[in-house]
């Protein structure tokens, strides 16, 4: 079983997952996908190559673990965290450790090996978003998991090892540090002003306009004022909503359209760049032990959003050494270029 280790100096948790354990000679940076379409475990007809299906959308009413699905969720064959056990948090001298419990799932976004999210119709994106939502809601019923992260790696340089379009969910027994920082900022702002920080940031960006990529009725996409990366995009609901899992189903098509448009603009402008995206939804309020502070006010002070991070530059020594980034493209320029992309149809 993997384990989580905490360093009190940098307040960082690390997952030590030795089951995936390459030997020293095996380490290499991979610039291409390992397997082609013939051996792809996510293609229809290859269902036996994945662990058993957790959930799938099957428009034809077919049974599990066979073709007929349009979106499919399975456990990750090489999970970073394991589903059985308890965190069993212990001190190790000045450090902390706990068992690497959690969930690690893969959502196969389409039966089509080549068709990425940016080229999916809104109906398919709606089905994908519906599955994301139901998996988040289900995993948050498990009180061992304090945070459930949905993310996507697109392209080998963004960490994708399989070409077939897919996203991943990792449920974990701690709230990740980067999210904790955002939660604390949002909470402090709300304590002082009784307003949501993310509502304030998006409202101002809409008025100021130069960093807006698009504004729909329910969603807004913008390049953050202090974007870390060229063409970084922040996608959020315009109406205050803290938990992605509580998004009403009626809003899923609007979300799907907004995500699809964001990815299409990126793809057309930057010739299908590698990117990562992460969903920063609410931490799991059902998780025990009950915590104080912002956990009582999350509904008002947190606001879910997706951060889309194109991989156009390398994170190098300065960034690793300082945690801050040198961005060669002003977010205002990035937003203008993204706005100017001509979308067909
Ligand atoms: Zn495939
Ligand atoms: Zn808000
Ligand atoms: Zn965030």
How does the SSE layout of this entry go?
Elements: E1 3-7, E2 12-16, E3 53-57, E4 71-75, E5 90-92, E6 95-99, E7 103-108, H1 122-139, E8 147-154, E9 166-172, H2 177-193, H3 197-208, E10 212-215, E11 219-222, E12 233-237, H4 252-270, E13 275-280, H5 298-301, E14 305-310, H6 317-322, H7 331-340
Antiparallel strand pairs: 1-2, 1-6, 3-4, 4-7, 5-6, 7-9, 8-9, 8-13, 10-11, 11-12, 12-14, 13-14
Helix pairs in contact: 1-4
Bound molecules: zinc ion (ZN) (3 copies).
Residues 182, 280, 305, 307 line the site of one zinc ion.
Structural commentary:
This protein is α+β, with helices and mostly antiparallel strands and 345 residues long. It has helices spanning 122-139, 177-193, 197-208, 252-270, 298-301, 317-322, 331-340; strands spanning 3-7, 12-16, 53-57, 71-75, 90-92, 95-99, 103-108, 147-154, 166-172, 212-215, 219-222, 233-237, 275-280, 305-310. The strands form two sheets. The protein has a ten-stranded antiparallel beta sheet, sandwiched between helices. It is globular, with a radius of gyration of 20 Å. It starts with a strand and ends in a 5-residue tail after the last helix. The structure holds zinc ion (3 copies).
Strand order of the largest sheet: 3-4-7-9-8-13-14-12-11-10
User: What general outline do the C-alpha atoms trace?
Assistant: globular
> What does the main sheet amount to?
10 strands, antiparallel
What is the radius of gyration? Answer: 20 Å
Mean of pLDDT: 93
């Amino acid at each position: 079983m993997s384990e989580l280790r905490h360093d009190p100096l940098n307040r960082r948790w690390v997952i030590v997952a030795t089951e995936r354990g390459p030997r020293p000679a095996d380490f290499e940076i991979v610039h291409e996908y390992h397997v082609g379409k013939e051996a792809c475990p996510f293609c229809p007809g290859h269902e036996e190559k994945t662990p058993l299906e957790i959930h799938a959308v099957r428009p034809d009413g077919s049974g599990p673990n066979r073709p007929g699905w349009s979106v499919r969720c399975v456990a990750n064959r090489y999970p970073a965290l394991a589903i059985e056990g308890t965190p069993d948090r212990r001190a190790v001298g000045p450090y902390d450790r706990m068992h690497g419990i959690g969930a690690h799932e893969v959502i196969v976004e389409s039966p089509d090996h080549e068709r990425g999210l940016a080229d999916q119709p809104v109906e398919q994106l709606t089905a994908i978003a519906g599955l994301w939502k139901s998996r988040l809601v289900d995993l948050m019923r498990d009180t061992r998991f304090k945070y459930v992260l949905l993310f996507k790696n697109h392209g080998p340089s963004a960490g994708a090892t399989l070409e077939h379009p897919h996203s991943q969910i990792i449920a974990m027994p701690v709230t990740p540090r980067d999210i904790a920082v955002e939660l604390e900022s949002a909470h402090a702002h709300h304590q002082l002003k009784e307003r949501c920080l993310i509502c304030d940031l998006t409202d101002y960006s809409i008025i100021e306009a130069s960093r807006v990529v698009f504004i729909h009725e329910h969603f807004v996409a913008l390049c953050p004022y202090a974007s870390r990366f060229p063409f970084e995009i922040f996608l959020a609901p315009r109406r205050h909503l803290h938990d992605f899992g509580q998004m009403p189903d009626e809003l899923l098509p609007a979300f799907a359209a907004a995500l699809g448009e964001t990815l299409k603009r990126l793809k057309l402008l930057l010739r299908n760049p590698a990117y990562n995206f992460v969903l920063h939804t609410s931490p799991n309020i059902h998780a025990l032990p009950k915590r104080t502070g912002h956990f009582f006010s999350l509904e008002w002070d947190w606001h879910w959003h997706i951060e889309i991070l194109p991989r156009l530059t390398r994170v190098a020594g300065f960034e690793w050494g300082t945690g801050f980034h040198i961005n060669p493209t002003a977010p205002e320029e990035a937003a203008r270029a993204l706005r100017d992309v001509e979308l067909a149809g």
